[in-house]
Structures are given as structure tokens and as C-alpha cells.
Design brief:
Leucine-rich repeat, LRR (right-handed beta-alpha superhelix)
Length: 475
């Protein structure tokens, strides 16, 4: 009897523990999942199984049960899993934040090769759990509270090839010394962090590094770029600091393998600094956006980039004369000229851009006269003409671009008659008519000609967006 009385409380405790559940529910189709900080926590399984009698223990949970529980937890809080056969090889949270207790369960998925997490309730404790995933090749942590000590734990992931530590306010320059101990690292994304020039000096041991993303790292200066000049394996470098200028760009000349360069938000870069582009004839992607010192004179090197596929010059001082240099770039697919001084004459240089698929002319000086230069482009699928002077006459030329899938005409002064000229665009799927003064009848007529067309509307001077698929709804 004494043994029985001693055993009953333990049995009661075991039953109570087994009955614990996660009160978090899967996200509804119409709203992001919510998480309760108290009710949402699961009971942590005991590390020792409960006694069920004198000297007896329950067997530990089967490995399959642990894996199933981890998968259910991921799905319950809005995450996604990817399988290869019977293995769980990837877990990703796109919008829902995770917490340390979630990561503890996810760490049971020992076949994971990719893990993408976000959330300010992820701390160094999670880093310890993640470090046990020996097969991990890609790790991305965004908006976490991990510190340098947590990053130190991650250096155990010797097979890691891609690491993202975006918006981690507690890491310092010292964390990069631990990152540099990852022998196989090829892709490093450090966006929106407080790291500076000293951190970049610690990356020298990464002899296989191919991509380094430092956009939003505003403490990086020209001195830091000098420390990157020895990482000759780099093929892609993304910068975004107002403190970067001509002297810093000049220090990149030795990166002969560079095929992608982004310099965004620089207030000091001028045509002189862009002379460095002459060293990169294999360039396939060039972004120089939000840099007012960039002009046509600094882009002569475009003529020697025959493999260029992407050119973004948004919010720079270019007039479009530089497009003369890319007229023969047969692989050019995407061009962003938004918020520049580009005009109709500039578009003439694009007449032979046979591979061009994506073009933004938002807030430029183009008019209807320039549309004739685009009418013969056989692959153009996306065209943004918002806040330009294009009118009905221009739409007659746009209507000749049979390949268009998406067209943005926000705020254009066009009529019902002009809108109906687009009826020949049978591939068109999305049309932005926000703050465009056309009638519901004209839109209905266009949709009758192009079944399935999705039209975004709202009336001047503003209001909530309307979808033309909801007839009779107005704003």
C-alpha cells in the first residue's frame, strides 16, 4: 500500500504532462497567425521519463514521434516544411515570428539543410539548438535578439554555405570573427546591422565567399571597402551606406570576379568613383539606385558589359543618354529608370533590346511620343508608366506590345476610348488604374475583351483599392 500511495502522485503528474497542448492555432486564410505569449507555450517534455512503478521507467518517445511533433509545431504557428522523401530538409517562417521554445523542438529535425527564422524572441538559447543541426547548409535569422555569444555557437556548423543575420541589433563587429571560422561559407547576408569597418577586416579568412550583402549597414565607410579588397573570390557585393564614396569604390578594383554590384543610398559617389566599373567586364547585375551623384557621364563602362542582364538606376541624375552603351546588350532583361530625368530620346536606345522583360519608367519625363520605341519589344512583360505624361496616343503604341502581362498606368490622364485600345493585349493579367479617370463601363468592356484581367482601382484623390472583379463596388 505504501508503494501504491507513493506511485499515484507520479502517475497523476505523468497524465497531466501528457495532456499538455499548444493553444496556438493555424493561421486563418484571411489573417496572419497570432500567438499568445502565455497560452501558446507547450509543456517542455521532461528529460527523464516518469516512473510508473518501483524501478520502472517509460521508454523514451520514438524518434518519429518527436519529428512529427516538431512538424506540427511548425505548421501550427504558420511555418512551412519541405520534404525529400521521408526526410524533413527545410523549415521556413515567412511572416510569423518564432521563439526559443519553437526552435528547441525544430532542432529535433536532424536532416534539416535549410532553416529560415525570424522573431525578436529568438535569443542565444536558439543558437545553441541550431548548432546541433550538423547537416544545415542554409541558415537565415532575421530580427532576432542573438548576440555575439550566440553567433559563436553557430561556428559549429562547419557545413554551412549560406548565412543570413539580418536586423540583429545586438551583434557587433566581434561577431564576424566567429563567422570567419565557417570554412565553407559562400553567401553572407548582413543587412541592416550596426557593424562597421572593423567587422569587414575579420572576413579575410573566408576564401570561398561569393556574395556579401551589407545593405543598410550605415556604419560601413570607404575604409571598410579597403578591407574587402583582398576577398577576390567575391562575385556579388551589395552596399548601402551614405558614407561610401569614390575612394571606397576605387578600392574594389581588384575584385576581378565581380559580376554583381549594388551601391544604394550613397550621397558621395560621383562619376569619378564609377570609373572602377571598367574592371568588371563580366558584370551581369548593376544597381546604383538612390545615389544622386550618379549621372550618364559615369556610366561609359556599360559599353564593355556585354553580359549585363539587370540595370537599376532609380533616383539618380541620369537622363538616359547612358542607355546608348547598352543598346547592344543582347541579354539585358530588367531596367529600372524610375525617378530619373529619362525622356523620349533615351527610349530610342532601347528599340533593339530584344530580351527586355521588365521596364520601370515611373516618374520620368517620357511622353506618348516615346512609346513608339517600345512597341516592337517582343519579350516585354512588365511596364510601369505611372506618373508620366503618356496619354491616349501613347496607349495606342503600348497596345502593340503583345507580350505585356502587367501594366501600371497610375494617375495617367487617359479616356475610356484610350483604355479600350488595350483590348489587343490578350496576355495582360494585371492593370493598375489607380487614380485614373475612366468609367466602370470602360473597365467592364476591357475585361470582356481580356477575360481574367485583374484591375486595381481607386478614385482621385485616394481611397481604398478596388478590384474590378467586384462589380458594383465603388469608393
Amino acid at each position: 500500500m505504501k508503494i501504491l500511495f507513493r506511485t499515484l502522485p507520479l502517475l497523476f503528474l505523468a497524465v497531466w504532462t501528457a495532456g499538455g497542448c499548444d493553444h496556438r492555432t493555424p493561421p486563418a486564410d484571411t489573417a496572419p497567425p497570432t500567438r499568445d505569449s502565455a497560452a501558446g507555450r507547450e509543456e517542455t517534455p521532461a528529460t527523464e521519463p516518469e516512473l510508473t512503478g518501483p524501478g520502472r521507467r517509460e521508454p523514451p518517445p520514438a524518434q518519429g514521434a518527436v519529428v512529427d511533433a516538431a512538424v506540427e509545431r511548425v505548421k501550427a504557428i504558420g511555418g512551412r516544411v519541405r520534404r525529400e522523401g521521408a526526410k524533413i530538409v527545410a523549415v521556413q517562417f515567412d511572416a510569423t515570428p518564432a521563439r526559443d521554445d519553437d526552435v528547441e523542438m525544430i532542432a529535433a529535425l536532424k536532416d534539416l539543410e535549410q532553416l529560415v527564422l525570424r522573431g525578436e524572441e529568438i535569443t542565444d538559447a536558439s543558437a545553441g539548438h541550431i548548432a546541433s543541426l550538423a547537416k544545415l547548409r542554409h541558415l537565415a535569422l532575421e530580427g532576432t535578439r542573438i548576440t555575439d555569444a550566440g553567433v559563436e555557437k553557430l561556428k559549429q556548423l562547419a557545413g554551412l554555405r549560406r548565412l543570413g543575420l539580418r536586423a540583429a541589433p545586438l551583434i557587433t563587429d566581434a561577431a564576424l570573427a566567429h563567422v570567419a571560422e565557417l570554412p565553407n561559407l559562400q553567401y553572407l547576408e548582413l543587412l541592416e546591422n550596426n557593424i562597421g569597418d572593423a567587422a569587414l577586416g575579420r572576413l579575410k579568412p573566408l576564401g570561398q565567399l561569393r556574395l556579401l550583402d551589407l545593405r543598410g549597414c550605415k556604419a560601413v565607410t570607404d575604409a571598410g571597402l579597403a578591407r574587402l579588397s583582398t576577398i577576390t573570390s567575391l562575385r556579388a557585393l551589395r552596399l548601402g551606406s551614405p558614407a561610401i564614396g569614390d575612394a571606397g569604390l576605387a578600392r574594389l578594383a581588384g575584385l576581378k570576379n565581380l559580376a554583381e554590384l549594388s551601391v544604394e543610398g550613397s550621397l558621395a559617389v560621383t562619376a569619378k568613383g564609377l570609373n572602377v566599373l571598367e574592371n568588371f567586364p563580366a558584370m551581369t547585375s548593376l544597381r546604383l539606385s538612390y545615389s544622386p551623384g550618379v549621372d550618364d557621364a559615369g556610366l561609359a563602362a556599360l559599353a564593355n558589359m556585354p553580359s549585363l542582364r539587370l540595370l537599376f538606376l532609380r533616383q539618380t541624375s541620369v537622363t538616359g543618354a547612358c542607355l546608348e552603351h547598352v543598346a547592344g546588350a543582347g541579354d539585358l532583361e530588367r531596367i529600372d529608370l524610375a525617378e530619373t530625368f529619362v525622356d523620349d530620346d533615351a527610349l530610342a536606345h532601347l528599340r533593339d533590346a530584344r530580351s527586355l522583360k521588365w521596364l520601370s519608367l515611373w516618374k520620368t519625363q517620357v511622353t506618348s511620343a516615346g512609346m513608339k520605341h517600345l512597341a516592337g519589344l517582343p519579350e516585354l512583360a512588365y511596364l510601369r508608366l505611372a506618373e508620366t505624361a503618356v496619354d491616349d496616343e501613347g496607349l495606342a503604341e503600348v497596345a502593340k506590345i503583345a507580350s505585356l502581362v502587367e501594366l501600371d498606368l497610375e494617375t495617367l490622364r487617359i479616356s475610356d476610348e484610350g483604355l479600350m485600345k488595350l483590348k489587343s493585349l490578350k496576355r495582360l493579367k494585371r492593370l493598375n488604374l489607380a487614380m485614373v479617370d475612366v468609367s466602370d463601363e470602360a473597365i467592364a468592356g476591357l475585361r470582356a475583351e481580356i477575360p481574367g484581367l485583374d484591375v486595381l482601382r481607386w478614385h482621385w484623390p485616394g481611397g481604398w483599392p478596388l478590384q474590378s472583379g467586384n462589380p458594383g463596388v465603388d469608393n
